[in-house]
Design a protein that fits this description.
disordered C terminus; signal; about 140 residues; mainly beta; globular
Length: about 140
């Protein structure tokens, strides 16, 4: 048996980019009035780092990336936990034309703008850092 027909067939299969070629790592905010800081609280910036999504009090592991054909988008399986429970889902991350991020999740579409490097990261209120003297700490 000769391998030439198989080799010829293999050469006809197009080589495509893998989902790992896309990166959505960074800080993302819903609008310019939000600070570029991820605090784990509602209203803070969304953070994507090393296939993990941090948003509010929710953390999601992003796995099984699948490229969306002819789009700068990747579909992920999401395994999420928040303060109360755990849940699974699918989400599509897409590069927006203006350099932002589109996140499509179970019938909802969210638009985020990129937090630029060197941009003020916002401040954590002093009250959040204060230790209550009545606690004995």
């Amino acid at each position: 048996m000769t391998l030439r027909p198989l080799t010829a067939l293999a050469l006809l299969i197009p080589v495509t980019a893998h989902a790992q070629d896309h990166t959505f790592d960074g800080l993302w905010r819903a609008d310019s009035s939000m600070a570029c800081i991820q605090t784990g609280e509602e209203g803070s910036a969304l953070k994507v780092e090393d296939d993990t999504l941090y948003g509010g009090s929710t953390t999601c592991d992003m796995s099984n990336p699948v490229d969306v054909t002819d789009m700068q988008a990747v579909l992920y399986d999401m395994a999420c936990e928040d303060d109360d429970d755990a849940f699974d889902g699918r989400a599509m991350f897409m590069n927006a034309a203006d350099g932002g991020l589109l996140l499509i999740w179970d019938g909802f579409a969210f638009k985020y703008e990129a937090c630029e490097e060197g941009e003020p990261a916002g401040e954590i209120p002093a009250a959040a850092l204060a230790i209550d003297e009545d606690d004995g700490e």
